[in-house]
Amino acid sequence: MRGPVPPPGESMRPRGRVRGDAVAVLAGRVFAHTRPSDASDLVALIGADDGGLVLTGANPVRAARRCRDEQAFGGPILFDLAAAEGKIATRERPFDENGDRLVETTLEERVQGQIDAGADAALTPTLYLRAGEFGAVEAAVEGAVGLGRDDVILSLPMDAGWLARGLIDKVIGLLAGVPIPKAIMLGGQFNPPQRVMDGVLGLRRLVTEVPNVALFRTDLAGLDAMAQGSLAASIGTSSALRHVVPPGEAAVYGRANGGRDDRSPSVLVPDLLSYVRGSVLADRFGDRPAPLCRCARCGGRSIVSFLRQEDWRDARLHGVAVWTQWARNLLYPDSLAGRRRYWRQLCREAIAAHARYNTLVRAREPVFTPPESLWIWAGEDTAPTTAGAAVPVRPR
């Protein structure tokens, strides 16, 4: 589904770079959450008026300066210190106040250091919040609010277990009164169906019931969050940046196809609105003609051609080129109802495309099946049902 959309890099509501006011920095934007090494290439794909960059990893300051000084990027840039990748938060220590330094620093210094380095607002270096550890969440809230600054975003790297039905009401109650913007980053690596459903519905409740919430370091759930009224979102350019790996766990990636070592990247398939391993796409299509990608990065490249580790970078940039177009279409309507209609229709078309792909590969049994989350996104949401709208029928 396509609607009227401004050209890449432009906006119907142009605005300049905003610094200092964290809510204004975030509002109405979908950021690319990326390693600094990709930043220069992403500038050509990310709109300065409706997007931005969240840099995490080595040399983020150098990358940010290059984007600003050499490429004149006018959108906001943030730094994710990724503190949650190393330690568990406690009531006594909710933040990482060491960083790479031998001498402990204060939270104020960690925040000011980001601003001094060129960030348009500062993300708190919050440690990993295990499900049910309310003391750690309360301490993180108190510490961030206690700074008394309007350029701070409370980073909340929360285990996905917080979205379960027994905890989500308490989380909402705790965060609803927090006066500064909050960036939720979900942790965990496995998604059984019930956890997926709890996650989607829990996230929708968070962004509709808690003011000024952003969903960061996520996948296409970020677009669903924007359709529900989220302040902002950031979508990871790689699998590792689309969730937080809990401390002590090794990132699970690299084996597929019956356990064989597989270094092909995850590829965002535009028709399917889903990420699929490059090797899986190639195996399913075999020698049959596969769809071509017409995104701003690929220019007609076959969707089954991302097979080697050398293709990872191209796959990352391809993914951003695809979802930024969806994000612009999604953000274009002035009304939240219009955004929800666009998003539901896009998801329903993607569900139908799965059946079409099964026909293309002549599968005896369906090999392309819509993810659980896609069914939920395409169905009823927090908005009233549109009269006469057809809800996809799920196979049982």
What keywords describe this structure?
alpha/beta, 396 residues, globular, TIM Barrel, eight-stranded parallel sheet, 34% helix, 14% strand, 14 strands, 2 domains
Explain this structure:
- With 396 residues, the protein is α/β, with parallel strands linked by helices.
- The chain folds into two domains: 220 residues, Queuine tRNA-ribosyltransferase-like (TIM Barrel); 124 residues, no CATH class.
- An eight-stranded parallel β-sheet has the order 3-2-1-8-7-6-5-4.
- Strand 13 and strand 14 form a beta hairpin.
- The longest helix has 25 residues.
- The N terminus is likely disordered.
Q: Could you tell me the mean pLDDT?
A: 88
Task: Note the total helix count.
Answer: 12
What's the total count of β strands?
14
Which shape, going by the Cα principal axes?
globular
Overall radius of gyration: 20 Å
Oligomer: single chain
Give the tally of structural domains: 2
CATH-defined topology of the largest domain: TIM Barrel
CATH architecture classification of the largest domain: Alpha-Beta Barrel
Report the structural category.
Answer: alpha/beta
Read across the widest sheet, the strand sequence of neighbours is: 3-2-1-8-7-6-5-4
Distance between the termini: 27 Å
Order of helices and strands: HEHEHEHEHEHEHEHEEEEEHEEHHH
**How helix-rich are the residues, as a percent range?**
25-40%
CATH class of the largest domain: Alpha Beta
Flag low-confidence runs: 1-14, 380-392
So, the CATH homologous superfamily of the largest domain?
Queuine tRNA-ribosyltransferase-like
Please outline the major beta sheet.
8 strands, parallel
Strand content: 5-15%
